[in-house]
Specification:
276 residues; alpha/beta; Rossmann fold; 7-stranded parallel β-sheet; 7 helices; 15% strand
């Protein structure tokens, strides 16, 4: 197990991606300290992990409350002696599908404010403890608009850019103390709750949008939640001991409107052999 007995705190663990990462870390032996503003979904994930033989505890913690997060981290260290992994997966309450010129200011600012407040609070709380112990990994999650211009995503795009910038800057400060800070960028997972609900509510229009996202990738695919979770396991493990201050792209090669420029063609064997 790559993460045996590592102590991991996950904020927003009741969400689909937070839960997927929690399950993946638990499978690799991590001991999970799961939290969220609503306890029931967090406890559900913790119970599932325990039923599978893992170690998980659930707590109600608001990741926007600096005192609550500080007390949570202090409690983890007091009970377990360390905090090895911190991952923030809370929702940003973003409004999308509206052009910026038509968007209300508050709808634009909300995800940026939530992103900066929660990630600053959780990452610095973890960083202070990890700096003292001389080790640790702080992870975050963004999406395609963090890397390219993308229409109709409102404040979500700037929020992603801000998270990635914070991750880089914090890595530069904590690196000399043995602490790594890495962001994961996803293209959106069709099996996540957000996408499933969008298809249920939006029908063919929503399904068509997901097809467009898929067509705009080099691999003509979208990452599943397990792909994101596996990336988190790798980054939290010793196998990524020399990776910090970067965003790991797990977008299947998302570009800006690639599908308008490249058409998949069938592979033609021209007589070559492996190794040629």
């Amino acid at each position: 197990m790559m993460l045996r007995n590592k102590i991991a705190a996950i904020y927003g663990a009741g969400g689909s991606l937070g839960g997927a990462v929690a399950r993946a870390l638990a499978r690799e032996g991590a001991r999970l300290m799961l939290s969220g503003r609503n306890l029931d979904p967090v406890e559900s994930v913790a119970a599932e992990i325990r039923a599978a033989g893992g170690d998980a505890q659930a707590a109600r913690v608001d990741a926007l409350d600096r005192d609550a997060v500080g007390a949570h981290v202090d409690g983890i260290v007091r009970r377990h002696g360390a905090l090895d992994i911190s991952f923030n997966a809370i929702g940003l309450q973003d409004t999308q599908d509206i052009a910026l010129v038509d968007m209300d200011l508050e709808d634009f600012l909300r995800p940026v404010r939530i992103a900066m407040q929660s990630h600053f609070i959780t990452a610095t709380a973890a960083g202070r403890r990890m700096k003292m112990q001389g080790s640790g990994v702080i992870l975050s999650l963004t999406a395609t608009p963090g890397g390219i211009g993308y229409p109709n995503v409102g404040g979500f795009g700037p929020a992603c850019c801000a998270i990635e910038s914070l991750s880089r800057d914090l890595a530069s400060e904590l690196g000399p103390h043995g602490v790594r800070v890495v962001n994961i960028r996803s293209a959106g997972s069709p099996d996540s709750r957000v996408f499933r609900e969008a298809v249920e509510q939006g029908g063919d229009r929503a399904a068509g949008f997901i097809d467009k996202l898929r067509d705009d990738t080099m691999l003509k695919a979208l990452p599943a939640m397990d792909d994101i979770a596996n990336a988190a396991v790798f980054l939290a493990s010793g196998m990524a001991a020399r990776i910090t201050g970067v965003t790991l792209d797990v977008t299947c090669g998302t570009t800006s409107a690639l599908n308008y420029k490249v058409t998949p063609i069938a592979f033609v064997n021209r007589g070559g052999t492996d190794g040629d």
